[in-house]
Amino acid sequence: MRCFTVLGPSQTGKSTVVEKLGSLEGTPRKSSSPYGLNLTEFTFGNEAWCALDAPGANEALAHAQHALLASDACILCVSSAPEEAVLAAPYLRIVEASGTPCILFVNRMDEPRGRLRDVIAALQDYANHTLLLRQIPIREGDRIIGSCDLISERAWRYREGQPSALIAIPESTAEREHEARTELLEHLSEFDDWLLEELIEDREPSSDALYAISSRVLSENRIIPVLIGAASHGNGMMRLMKALRHEAPPVGILRQRLAQTGTVDEGKLVAVSFHAYHRQNVGKTGLVRALGEGLRQGASLGGSSLGAVQNLANGRSNSAVLPAPGDVFATVKSDHLPVPSLLTSGAVVAPPEWTEPPTPMLERILVPGSERDENKLSETLAKLSETDRGLKVLQEEGTGAQLVRAQGPVHLRDLCRTLAEVFHISVTDRTPSPIYRETIAKPSEVHYRHRKQTGGAGQFADVKLSIHPNERGQGFTFGETVKGGAVPRNYFSAVEAGAREAMEKGPLGFEVIDVGVTLLDGQHHTVDSSEHAFRTASKMGVRQALSEGSTVLMQPVFRAEFHIPSVYSGSLIQIVAALNGQVLGFDRDETAKGWDIFRALVPGGALEELARSLRSATQGIGYFSKTFDHFEELYGKEADAIVRAKEKPGAAH
């Protein structure tokens, strides 16, 4: 079986392309995953094929990345509008990072919204590989009525619902065809000395030789050939499928590529797991592509026994099925196989770094609908994060509530639906509260005496404490200047412990940071003093000093690193400024053409709005990762509102 992925932005007709390709020589067999990955098995040219139709939403980019892990080649569907080229930037990025041979297909040429050369030029801004036209459109007025193949120099006229008809190259197209063919041959000659010599000697190379060179160049991932068509009318589908059949490399090349990037012995690499999902009453279903011989139900794979091998289309198990190299199959009761991963018979090998999905930006607290759901939620989210690497599961600081990081609102909605429909867990979501702190603005001293007599031994401790602000980031410090044994040394640790305990919650209701406490003096009683008494005196004294002092609210500030196409960098400056952030600068992304890495400091309370504004400004393409940088003072109405909200019952810490 040969396998390819069809990917690209939403509304570029990917699913229609797969449907038309699968129906060229028979009836395809379809299956789908809840995550939006659709699989189509079909036969073409007496060979078995499997097309992986990856979801087009940017929030589902991880599933497209994982599909490439199992693909011999891919088809990148793009719009025929030059201004929409930026929407293909994330897909060009992951295709090039993966090293997957790619054919770029400009779809919907029946409704052109710009010149083809402008479309290619706009896309080239985001591709390190040369985008090389293999066809040009034939026009009648404003309509595209066919295409001309630049290698065979044959022209085809589209016919609705029928195979295209062979025609002579129209005079109106001849000059453009000659120009585009010359450019094609010049680019191909960069990878073939024989062709270069033929061109220098002004000899016309044969079509068969050119097809052979094109096949090798694609297999070696040197260029990205560009084909055109209109899938909804069936136009260009046969040519696209023939290009895949003759030029896409066999499964052995994929095995070599994965072994090199995954640092695993090629001879031991027998399979790759690339997708998984949970089904009600079934459990985890994994999708695997065989890369070597010997796979069957019960065979050792990834260090344990492979579960039932199932047919993709009908889900039926057959223990007699022996997947051949290249076959794609489903398996249940194989929970030991993580997704994605490279698999030998005895071990699981981590996938290449390029499979790492974009950092999720949307944070939400999931609130279970009942106590029963609360007990199940943590375990279930852990399971889902194993099959969806775009999802991160944590716990909220202070409350321990389940916090999830999703790729976006659609991703979050799908997660909640899966929890309800598959696991019968009802949840609502809320925005997590930023982690605020407080500190003091000026030093003070306090004298506190703790005395308690309840019969028998009493409690006595007398402390004089100095409390002062520390430098930002210094945290809590403790010292003592006691003279003459007024407070015995063995009680110093109890005084420090009491002071630390007082810092857990200050007058504003938040943890106190960057404060120093010094024990200046005190008194003790030979009978009634104890570590407990001095700990209590210290805690109460520090609390009193904090309440009498000038406390200041501290907000968290995060260092954010944005990954965005360069055309959006200017708008990001305005977004950060509007959120009271500080721009630190940006550089060209050396790993992705046409992208910038932008850095800024952003208040924690603005992260929710930042994610929303970034999605809006970059059409859902841009994303950012964040790391805590420091706390800074916050004053005025905003600080007052935060303190008032903290005082409400049930407010998060």
TrEMBL record:
Residues 433-550 form the Translation elongation factor EFG/EF2 domain. Pfam families: EFG_C (PF00679), EFG_III (PF14492), EFG_IV (PF03764), GTP_EFTU (PF00009). GO terms for molecular function: GTP binding; GTPase activity; guanosine tetraphosphate binding; translation elongation factor activity. The keyword Transmembrane does not apply. Keywords: Elongation factor, GTP-binding, Nucleotide-binding, Plasmid, Protein biosynthesis. Residues 552-642 form the Elongation factor EFG domain. SMART domains: EFG_C, EFG_IV. Catalyzes the GTP-dependent ribosomal translocation step during translation elongation. During this step, the ribosome changes from the pre-translocational (PRE) to the post-translocational (POST) state as the newly formed A-site-bound peptidyl-tRNA and P-site-bound deacylated tRNA move to the P and E sites, respectively. Catalyzes the coordinated movement of the two tRNA molecules, the mRNA and conformational changes in the ribosome. This is Elongation factor G. It comes from Rhizobium leguminosarum bv. trifolii (strain WSM2304). The lineage of its organism: Bacteria, Pseudomonadati, Pseudomonadota, Alphaproteobacteria, Hyphomicrobiales.
